[in-house]
Amino acid sequence: MTGADGLSAVSASIAVADGVEDRLAANAEKELALVPTCSTYQIEMQGVIVRGTMQSAGTGMEGSTSFGIRNSIVLPDGRQQNDTTVTAARGDLPVTDTSQVMGSPSGSSAALEQLAGRVPAAAGRGRPRHGHRQVGPHITSQ
Fold first, then answer.
1. Is there a domain that residue 3 lies in?
2. How many domains does the chain have?
3. What is the largest CA-CA distance in the chain?
4. Residue 114, domain extent
5. Would residue 76 count as lying in a domain?
6. How far is 63 from 83, CA to CA, in rounded Å?
7. Does residue 83 sit within a domain?
């Protein structure tokens, strides 16, 4: 995933926590409900204003609870930074993947989901604790 000016980054965070999938399912809907409130925002730092937008990034990971957020920030020099974050949990294994790209749209949530899905499989962990259920418009829980 590379931006028009060649600057990009993808990072992944992994942890182990008892009951994390259930907690993610319980909290994700509340967190996503805040997205419309912050759909446009501005931050002022030392007299410099940075403007941004935020939206839900649909997810649909098989066997996991997941959701995604996409941010776009216009920096003071006019360049645009685009970030997509996908958080997924399977059993006791949460994974958060973030794509940051300068100058072009950030990575698709599907690519980040694929990366997040490989982690529990490679670890041999994180079996789903419950059957498929929809917990929000852009949250899928297995």
1. no
2. 1
3. 51
4. 8-141
5. yes
6. 25
7. yes
CA distances from 14 to 43, 117, 123, 126 (A): 29, 12, 11, 12
Q: Is residue 1 part of a domain?
A: no
Counting residues of the chain whose pLDDT is more than 70, the rounded percentage is 71
Q: Of all helices (H) and strands (E), which one includes residue 30?
A: helix 20-33
Identity of residue 106: S
Report how far apart, in Å, the C-alpha atoms of 7 and of each of 13, 76, 90, 121 are. Answer: 20, 17, 31, 30
Q: Which of 48-51's residues contact partners 24+ apart within 8 Å by CB, and which partners?
A: 48/76, 49/76, 50/74, 50/75, 50/76
Q: What is the DSSP-derived secondary structure letter of residue 39?
A: S
Name the burial class of residue 138, with classes exposed (0-12), middle (13-18) and buried (19+) by CB atoms within 10 angstroms of its CB.
buried
Task: Tell me the per-residue pLDDT of 42-96, one tens digit each, with 9 for 90 and over.
Answer: 999 899 989 999 988 877 766 677 888 889 998 888 888 888 888 888 888 888 8
pTM check: above 0.85: no
How many Cα atoms sit within 13 Å of 120 on the Cβ side? 25
